[in-house]
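Posted in: Protein Modeling Q&A

I'm a second-year student putting together a small comparison for a lab meeting, and my supervisor asked me to include a predicted structure for Extracellular solute-binding protein. I've never done this before, so apologies if this is the wrong subforum. The sequence is pasted below exactly as I got it from our records. If anyone can share the structure token output, I'd also love a short note on what stands out.
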Amino acid sequence: MKKKLLAMLLALSVVLALCACGDADGTPSGSPAASPASSPAAAPSGEPVPSEPTPSDSAGLSGTLEVWSSGEELGRFVEGFNQVHPDVTVNITVVPNADFIAKLTPTLASGQGAPDIFTGESDYVKYLVDSGFWDDLRQAPYSADTSDVWDYVASVGTDASGALRALSWQASPGSIMYRRDMAKEVLGTDDPTEVAALLSSNDAMLDVAAKLKDKGIKMFASWQDIMNMQFSNRAQPWVVDDRLVIDESMLDFMDMAKTIAENGYDLNVDPWAPEWSAAVESTDTFCYVLPSWGYQFVVKPAADTTKGQWAMCQGSVPYVKGGTWLGIYKDSPNKDLAWAFLEYCCLNSEAQQAYAAEYGEYVSLKSADQALAAGAGEEVLGGQNPFAFYNEQMEKIPSDLMTAYDGTINTAFLSAAKAYATGVLSKDDALQQFKDDVANAYPELTID
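Accepted answer (user: helix_wrangler)
Welcome! Here is the predicted structure, written out as tokens:
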């Protein structure tokens, strides 16, 4: 089993190298800091910044902790952690996401020089969860209490046997981020609840897209972003009992993508293209369909003349996309230090509130997000509080359907969908291309 997983990880490392600029769906890998816009953000306006946790004289830990991470965000926790554990040195080695698996895999295989903690991005975290290289955090000496963790976050970090292998300090619920001024002009309202009612199905979204087009406005920045929303709401995962499953909702997504492309309902660009990013300030683009990091790292920093003209609402379905999980290496000689740091980042509500208030990132603990939801709203969003909105979405998120195959299969599926949407291939031929790509990557799978 371990050899099979290592082989899969090596295959994935090739895919990540080819997709160095983003996830399989064109969005940044898991954590926002992997995106082109990774500079720290200001604290949400009007929200109190909690004080740092009080240092504990009884902590008594000392030593050096080695952490490998695909992003820089974990480093933001170190100062607060060292107030509690001043004698612990935390060395964080940041390995670019495109190179992360290629570096990690041989290290784990040899057992030499492995970090005490290493991260896993959403596209490949299930490989690591199922690999046996991470300890079970529910067992001694950890005995993790996840009652305050959003269910989805804990579910992703749980393997098939029920062992909790990883936790995250992040959660990434999504929204449709739309322009209030355009909504008023075309739809007669900018109220998030009323706009959501007008976008409550894929057909409804296409109807609105047609109305916007009549006014010279593109509905979407890129149709590719919609895969984020569709992916969370499948009835089945990509692989069940070693068989490839193409959920009906993904076929519907292909048809929706083609309708958008043929009718000019988007900018006809890939995510992170200059035109895509510039659409925040445009006069002809209605919305982005992105997870929580999309607001903090795409819309908020770019909104200047459009400040106050943005809002968030639910689209046809609630969804979640992205995130970074942490696990403790099973053979770490520093498990006490590793647990102290992981617990501080992923289970300490005060630490997460301070982090979220400073950087604006939606976090994994319910109590932290609820505290931040009680603060003032965002100027960019016309006074809407994103934490309050995202809290409602997290209550609706479907069950975790992630598999160890997702990164590679998502890339293959998006490629096929693009070929169909742009008229390069028929739908049948695009689906055959998709199946062939999956068969080449995973010959052990049964593909009908």
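A couple of things worth pointing out for your meeting: The domain at 174-320+400-441 is CATH 3.40.190.10 (D-Maltodextrin-Binding Protein; domain 2). The two ends are 24 Å apart (CA to CA).
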